[in-house]
Design a protein that fits this description.
mainly alpha; single chain
């Protein structure tokens, strides 16, 4: 009786094993593609990323220029201008 039950359940088990083997084979076949695409993505820069980086650089440069202009205006106002300061441009008329 036990043997009969085992033989009856054997087709059910073989389907699970075949499904597992097929999934494992699929995973093994797709791993190199996933690794390669991740590597390519890591070393390349998309256009959006490049635009964001350029925008960040421009904002930092703008902040630096604004900071320098305020410092120059303060020096001109206190009559301690540096030789490179253009005080006529910093002073309102």
């Amino acid at each position: 009786m036990r043997k009969l039950a085992l033989f009856a359940m054997l087709p059910l088990l073989s389907g699970c094993v075949v499904g597992t083997v097929a999934k494992t084979a699929f995973d093994v076949a797709t791993v190199p593609v996933k690794v390669a695409s991740a590597g390519v993505d890591a070393v390349t820069t998309s256009q959006a990323e490049a635009d964001q980086k350029r925008g960040r650089e421009l904002r930092k440069e703008e902040e630096r220029r604004g900071r320098e202009a305020r410092q120059m205006a303060d020096r001109c106002k206190q009559r301690r201008a540096l030789p490179t300061d253009i005080c006529s441009a910093a002073q309102p008329y």
